[in-house]
Structures are given as structure tokens and as C-alpha cells.
Specification:
Elements (H helix, E strand, L loop, with lengths): L5 E10 L6 E11 L4 E6 L5 H8 L7 E6 L2 E2 L7 E4 L11 H7 L8 H14 L15 H13 L5 E5 L7 H18 L2 E5 L3 H7 L2 E5 L6 E6 L14 H29 L1
Parallel strand pairs: 3-8, 3-9, 6-7, 7-8
Antiparallel strand pairs: 1-2, 1-4, 4-5, 9-10
Helix pairs in contact: 2-3, 2-4, 3-4, 6-7
Length: 266
């Protein structure tokens, strides 16, 4: 069997210490294969974003380890790209300049950088907006810039934390289809955190459901829906069954959280 792209081995995370310590994640074991698209869902506060931050090297586990291509994660690296819900664009830079900024420290020649930037501008459907500033763009277009900027230096892993959460339903659907096309064309491993169960199923090869805090893997569901996918797949009976299973899991965890809160209040 080929080595997994990402291995999360017994990872735990505690914030603070002593009486103020909060156990965000107890023990997560998870493997992600190269070019796999994995969605991560769960109740609020179950550690989804914390897990993504640790994979990205933005935070450190307090237990266990995370391996990428067999090597331990010891901080951020250019083998990982990050896309957040906030666009984090430089308002004083054009679309082209925002994307090119990610290549600032690259040893590539200027012409190669320009070629890469042009390629990803086209890939995310922003041809004609190269010299436009962020304030002139819609939310969906800003997120396209953020995706292009995260891919332009060709990371092998893309970490996405609620990237479409602030978009309206129609724009969100279009961005999901765009993301799938970019993923299929550029062969990158994706870990995608979302609260939207439909979105998780539509995008993923596998959906990982985390239990309520302290987070751990409650269930992994292989999504065996044909690719390429379009919006009509949400009417498929198998899609509905996946959704029922995942929502049942999340409801169970939500009820646990409510019960614990009630107990703490008495």
C-alpha cells in the first residue's frame, strides 16, 4: 500500500493549563491519501479548525504527531496552501499582484511567475479582472483570488477552512463546482472544513465527522458518487442517505453538548 499523504497519529490538543485547561481534541487518528478530497464536519467547537491549523503548522499538538509525506510537521511550509473564510487580500494590490505575491520568495524567473499567475487567473475564471482591486470584486470573486493565490506556488495539500461560508447560496454553489474543477485539473490533496453537510458530501471523496469536544473521529463515510459532479447530484437517493447519516451523527453530538451545558448550569 502506498504511503498516505497526511497521517494524523493520536493527535490531541489542550489549550491553557491547570484549572483553565480546555481539551479541544482528545485523540484523532486519520490518514489522507494523495489527491484525496476529505471534508471535515461536526458541531461548533469540536476542533475542526484547530485540526486544520495543526496540519498547516500554524499550531502544535500537545500529543501525537502529524506527518506529511512521512515527515513530521514542524511549522508552516510551501507544500501546504491555506484558504480561510476571510479573503485576506491586500486591498492596495490588483488581482494579479495579490496572486503574484505568493511567489515573492520563489526562485523562478519573472517570466515563469507571470505565466503561473496568468494560468491560475484563467483557472479560477478571473480572466479580464487582472488589474481590478479587491474593493471592486464580489465576495465570490475575492475568494477565487484567494484560491488562486494558494495554488499558484503549487502546494501538494490545500487546507480550506469554511472558505465559502460568507457567500450567498447561488454563489456558493458556483464556487463549489469551480473548486472541483480546479481540484480535478491540478491534482491536489484537499482537507475542507465546513458546517454545510450538503457541501461536504458534494465535494468529498470521504466525509469525516468529528465528535463534540474534546474532538475525536466519530465516523468516516466514503462518498461513492460518480465524478465529475454537478448540482443535480443533490437529488440522488444515495446523496440523501449520506446526508441522513451525517446529520444523525451531528444531532447526537449536539444533544450531548446541550446535556453537558445543562449539567454544568445546575
Amino acid at each position: 500500500m502506498t504511503q498516505a499523504k497526511v497521517v494524523i497519529d493520536g493527535v490531541g490538543k489542550i489549550f491553557g493549563s491547570g484549572d483553565e485547561a480546555i481539551e479541544a481534541i482528545r485523540r484523532i487518528d486519520l490518514s489522507v491519501q494523495e489527491n484525496e478530497f476529505v471534508s471535515i464536519v461536526g458541531t461548533s467547537g469540536c476542533g475542526k479548525s484547530t485540526l486544520l491549523n495543526m496540519i498547516g503548522g500554524l499550531d502544535e499538538p500537545t500529543g501525537g504527531e502529524i506527518l506529511i509525506d512521512g515527515e513530521p510537521v514542524e511549522g508552516p511550509g510551501r507544500n501546504r496552501g491555506f484558504v480561510f473564510q476571510s479573503y485576506s487580500l491586500f486591498e492596495w494590490m490588483t488581482v494579479r499582484a495579490n496572486i503574484r505575491f505568493a511567489l515573492e520568495k520563489s526562485a523562478l524567473a519573472a517570466a515563469e511567475k507571470d505565466e503561473l499567475v496568468s494560468h491560475f487567473i484563467q483557472a479560477v475564471g478571473l480572466t479580464g479582472f487582472e488589474n481590478t482591486y479587491p474593493k471592486q470584486l464580489s465576495g465570490g470573486m475575492k475568494q477565487r483570488v484567494a484560491i488562486a493565490r494558494s495554488l499558484v506556488y503549487k502546494p501538494s495539500i490545500l487546507l480550506m477552512d469554511e472558505p465559502f461560508g460568507a457567500l450567498d447560496a447561488q454563489t456558493r454553489g458556483m464556487m463549489q463546482e469551480l473548486l472541483l474543477k480546479v481540484w480535478e485539473d491540478h491534482k491536489v490533496t484537499v482537507l475542507f472544513v465546513t458546517h454545510d453537510v450538503d457541501e461536504a458530501i458534494f465535494l468529498a471523496d470521504r466525509v469525516v465527522v468529528l465528535g463534540s469536544r474534546p474532538g475525536l473521529v466519530k465516523r468516516e463515510i466514503q462518498i461513492e458518487l460518480e465524478r465529475p459532479r454537478n448540482f443535480e447530484i443533490v437529488t440522488d437517493s444515495q446523496f440523501s442517505e449520506y446526508k441522513r447519516e451525517i446529520l444523525t451523527d451531528i444531532r447526537e453530538e449536539t444533544l450531548k453538548v446541550m446535556h453537558m451545558e445543562q449539567m454544568a448550569a445546575t
